[in-house]
Amino acid sequence: MSGSSTVNGANVGPNPSNASGAGSAFQQSFNSAVTATVISQPGSVAVSGSVDITSTQGTLTVSGASAIADTSTGNNVIYEQNSNAAVFAAGQDTISAWSGATTLFGASVGQTTVVTEGSGASVTGGSGSIKALASGGNSTLVGGTGVSLFTVQGSNNLAVAGTAGTTGVDLSSTSGPETVTTNPLGNSGTLVAFLGSGADSVIGGSGASTVQGGSGQDSFIFVKGHAGGSETILGFSDFDNIGFAGYGYNGANLPTETVGSLGDVITLNDGTNITLVGVFHKLF
Q: Which of the ends of the chain has fewer CB neighbours closer than 10 A, N or C?
């Protein structure tokens, strides 16, 4: 395909080989031979297939696309609707996905701001920062290596801390069940999480995490080979559970436990430290 034409105020043509912004991620997923609708100015367009946004500082509405990549320098407002699109953001983009199971990848620079309303959304942060509101339920949120801030609504969501940087997860308005996991790959990211009113599960990993328990019956789980970091738990109640897998603990072989000035401190045999703030007695 060569040349270009105009559809709904948008120029269309082949995906440019010299694209910047999110272009590298786009090219990796959809090789340079893929033909895409190229949007080079603000407007609305309904398409099928891939979309390549080359404009900047504009407001665009895209419906029906299978993939949307902002390969400009960013700072666009993008409304994605009526599709299960994969969206690749550029720096300072604001992206709203009104329906469908959108899959979004944050930018490598600046801040990506995201709102997803459809069920089954997936949001993954990049090396830039990301701020996301996921309201549709059944969402998967993975922190990047910068600062990742996730506000989650609905039920049956999974939030995973980034491999580096700081990931904040606010589940306080959810009714659960929700699952939060710190770094499953043995990395050094930091997690801060606020649980909701349902029966939420937190899987402790490496790195440092601070978790504010919710009003439901929460479970805090540590798996040998996945853990190794430190976890501070606030609001641990008599209704909550704590469990260990792969450590070999039983009634005659218990983890090390001491009560300090902050509360009960549990040390596992892989070096994991768990502090139950305000619990001034041993659990075992």
A: N
Q: Residue 80: exposed, middle, or buried by beta-carbon count in 10 A (0-12, 13-18, 19+)?
A: buried
Q: For residue 78, give the 3-state DSSP assignment.
A: strand
In sequence order, what E strands does 127-283 have?
A: 129-134, 140-142, 147-152, 158-160, 166-170, 179-181, 190-194, 201-204, 208-212, 219-223, 230-234, 241-245, 256-259, 263-267, 273-277
Alpha helix (H) residue ranges in 118-164: none
Q: Write out the chain's pLDDT in tens, 284 residues.
A: 233 333 444 444 444 433 344 444 554 545 555 678 899 888 898 988 899 999 999 999 999 999 999 999 999 999 998 789 999 999 999 999 988 899 999 999 999 999 999 999 999 999 999 999 999 889 999 999 999 999 999 899 999 999 999 999 999 999 989 999 987 777 889 999 999 999 999 998 888 999 999 999 999 999 988 878 899 999 999 999 999 999 999 888 899 999 999 999 999 999 999 999 999 999 99
Q: Determine the Cα–Cα distance for residues 1 and 3; give it in Å rounded to an integer.
A: 7
Residue environment code for 198-237, b if the CB has 16+ CB neighbours within 10 A, otherwise e: bbbbbbbbbbbbbbbbbebbbbbbbbbebbbbbbbbebbe
The residue extents of the domains of the chain are 5-277
**Which two three-digit tokens encode residue 115?**
């709102």
Contact 148, 133 (CB under 8 A): no
Alpha carbon 53 to chain centroid distance?
23
Query: Which residues make beta-bridge pairs with 180?
Result: 159, 202
